[in-house]
Amino acid sequence: MKNIVLFGGGNIAQAVVEGLINADFKPDNIFYIDRNTRNQKALKKLKIKNLKKNASIKIDLFILAVKPKDAIEAYKQILNEYKDPKIVSFVAGIKSKKYIKLNQDIQFLRAMPNTSARFNLGITAIYNSSFSKNNLAKVSKLFKKIGIVMNLDNESKIDIFTGMIGSGPAYFFYLLKSYEKKLMSLCNQDKKKVNAAMVNLIKGVGFSIENNDNLDELIDAVASKKGTTEAGLKSFKSEKLDKIFEKGISAAIKRSKEISNEF
Ligand SMILES: NC(=O)c1ccc[n+]([C@@H]2O[C@H](COP(=O)([O-])OP(=O)(O)OC[C@H]3O[C@@H](n4cnc5c(N)ncnc54)[C@H](OP(=O)(O)O)[C@@H]3O)[C@@H](O)[C@H]2O)c1
């Protein structure tokens, strides 16, 4: 995959581009199509180029990274303007068959990344609809540059990944807001200090899991009988925090399925 084009250069596209460039993918080989001036500026800063209409560049891969409401229109634009494009869709909800019915011969697959791709710590789920084996291997190799890749055997699993992994970072940012609020008053509104504390908290959690894959053991290592952690956990349990969290994830998965019927 030499030349790639991001059709839609917003949040997720920028995260993926940054991750690819960190992994030594040359900015010269990354192009974008985007109508939003704020995003155009951000993309220019990343030193990638706008793909001009009728440019004589051989494009190896298009990545569709627009909101679901814009997806079919953008997809049709690619089909109309480029010969035999290979297309990866990041778009939540909309199923492969909606795209493939517009062109039966197209090589198409769905991928669901997340914004941690920016730091090469992404998780990308891939469901292959019609890529050849050889091209699928090339796409997997590309996404391995920005984190780990999970190949799915059933398209409905993409909805689950969308709710859990695509949306995943936001759930943790949301939980951290309670920490931030308390830490800010504790640290006399020193935002730098508070951020550093939150970063270490989350990084430490990540490294702990790398060291020990048993979450109960990790909890036990922090909680002692009749101690503070135990009191906190007891309160979480009595408020059924686990069920509340699961319910939130289920709502996101449900929404992903609904989007499919809306567009
Ligand atoms: N954000 C995430 O963390 C994440 C993770 C996984 C998957 N996704 C999926 O990725 C897709 C993009 O999400 P996002 O958050 O990156 O969206 P976004 O920030 O809104 O970026 C989309 C960009 O595409 C532009 N665009 C739309 N239609 C266009 C067209 N026909 N021609 C030129 N530019 C066009 C938009 O311009 P305007 O602003 O003018 O509309 C916008 O700049 C969504 O379908 C989402 O489900 C997102």
TrEMBL record:
Domain Pyrroline-5-carboxylate reductase dimerisation: 155-258
EC number: 1.5.1.2
Pathway(s) annotated for this protein in UniProt: Amino-acid biosynthesis; L-proline biosynthesis; L-proline from L-glutamate 5-semialdehyde: step 1/1
One Pfam family hit: P5CR_dimer
InterPro entries, per the entry: 6-PGluconate_DH-like_C_sf (IPR008927), NAD(P)-bd_dom_sf (IPR036291), P5C_Rdtase_cat_N (IPR028939), P5CR-like_CS (IPR053790), P5CR_dimer (IPR029036), Pyrroline-COOH_reductase (IPR000304)
GO terms under biological process: L-proline biosynthetic process
Catalytic activity: L-proline + NADP(+) = (S)-1-pyrroline-5-carboxylate + NADPH + 2 H(+); L-proline + NAD(+) = (S)-1-pyrroline-5-carboxylate + NADH + 2 H(+)
Superkingdom as given in the UniProt entry: Bacteria
Gene Ontology molecular function terms on file: pyrroline-5-carboxylate reductase activity
Location(s) in or outside the cell: Cytoplasm
Cellular component annotations (GO), alphabetically ordered: cytoplasm
Entries under SUPFAM superfamilies matching the protein: 6-phosphogluconate dehydrogenase C-terminal domain-like (SSF48179), NAD(P)-binding Rossmann-fold domains (SSF51735)
Binding site for NADP(+): A65, V66, K67, P68
Keywords: Amino-acid biosynthesis, Cytoplasm, NADP, Oxidoreductase, Proline biosynthesis
Residues where NADPH binds: N54
Pyrroline-5-carboxylate reductase catalytic N-terminal domain span: 4-93
HAMAP family (alphabetical): P5C_reductase
Functional summary from the UniProt entry: Catalyzes the reduction of 1-pyrroline-5-carboxylate (PCA) to L-proline.
Family note: Belongs to the pyrroline-5-carboxylate reductase family.
Protein name per Swiss-Prot or TrEMBL: Pyrroline-5-carboxylate reductase
Organism per entry: SAR86 cluster bacterium
